[in-house]
Amino acid sequence: MQNNQENIKVYGADWCGHTLETRTHLDEIGVPYRYINVEQDSQASAWVKDQNDGMEIKPTLDIQGEIVTAPPNSQLDSLLKEHGLL
Q1: Would strands 8-12 and 34-37 be described as parallel, antiparallel, or unpaired?
Q2: Which sign does the torsion angle of CA 51, 45, 72, 9 carry?
Q3: Which of 16, 27, 42, 85 could form a disulfide with 80, with the two C-beta atoms 3.0–4.6 Å apart?
Q4: Residue 3 pLDDT more than 90?
């Protein structure tokens, strides 16, 4: 089971409640991830918009190449299991 920060990237903003909820959940279940603040990284912001029909939806996650937007924790857990990360 490969388990490093590059398996999961969380694109969001520090002030965003949904981003905070996702990051807190990943921390609580012990799954490492890389956090990218779209407000400090214009390329990341553009990437998020490309994934979401021009909207900067936070958080947008890249889980080993599978893109998911603002997943509830239950969906996130299912995806992590599918990818062998949980």
Answers
A1: parallel
A2: positive
A3: 85
A4: no
